[in-house]
């Protein structure tokens, strides 16, 4: 099991958590479960419902959209941030290309944490707003 310091170090590099205080980041870290996934296993399937967010501790993940590889992820990368905030279908298929250790956060538990710690909700919403502004600007609006 990853020590809490290692979890926090990985989580603080996730854009959604970048602006959290040390205390708030610790609260998120306490929710993060460590899971081991064998190579070859499909973690998420495009179009299927999703409610988990993952940070890669060790291993490798292939990301496919429409059956085409669009990205390869490794340690300290993350996936599933949309599912952490809102219900809906997965936007990509993620397959382990090697045995992989992940930190997992579930949406229900994370929503409960945000209800208990408004500062976490504020930081996450601020990050999402900034990402939308950036995306809007990038598309010329």
Key features of this structure:
four-stranded antiparallel sheet, 141 residues, Jelly Rolls, alpha+beta, globular
How are the SSEs ordered, and which strands pair?
Blueprint: H1 4-11, H2 22-31, E1 33-37, E2 42-44, E3 52-58, E4 61-65, E5 68-73, E6 78-79, H3 81-85, E7 93-96, E8 100-106, H4 107-116, H5 118-138
Antiparallel strand pairs: 1-8, 2-7, 3-6, 3-8, 4-5, 4-7
Helix pairs in contact: 1-2, 4-5
Walk me through what this model shows:
The protein has 141 residues and is of the alpha+beta class. The chain has a single domain (4-136), classed as Jelly Rolls (Sandwich). The protein contains five helices and eight strands. The strands form two sheets. The protein has a four-stranded antiparallel sheet with strand order 1-8-3-6. A four-stranded antiparallel sheet has the order 2-7-4-5, with no helix packed on it. Helix 1 (4-11) packs across helix 2 and helix 4 crosses helix 5 (118-138). It is globular. The mean pLDDT is 87.
């Amino acid at each position: 099991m990853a020590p809490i310091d290692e979890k926090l170090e990985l989580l603080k590099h996730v854009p959604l958590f970048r602006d959290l205080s040390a205390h708030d980041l610790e609260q998120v870290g306490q929710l993060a479960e460590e899971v081991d996934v064998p190579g070859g296993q499909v973690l998420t399937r495009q179009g299927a419902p999703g409610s988990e967010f993952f940070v890669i501790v060790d291993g490798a993940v292939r990301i496919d959209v429409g059956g085409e590889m669009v990205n390869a992820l490794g340690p300290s990368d993350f996936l599933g941030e949309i599912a952490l905030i809102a219900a809906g279908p997965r936007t990509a298929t993620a397959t382990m290309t090697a045995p992989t250790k992940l930190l997992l956060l579930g949406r229900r538990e994370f929503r409960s944490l945000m209800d208990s710690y408004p500062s976490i909700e504020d930081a996450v919403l601020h990050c999402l707003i900034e990402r939308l502004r950036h995306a809007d600007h990038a598309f010329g609006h």
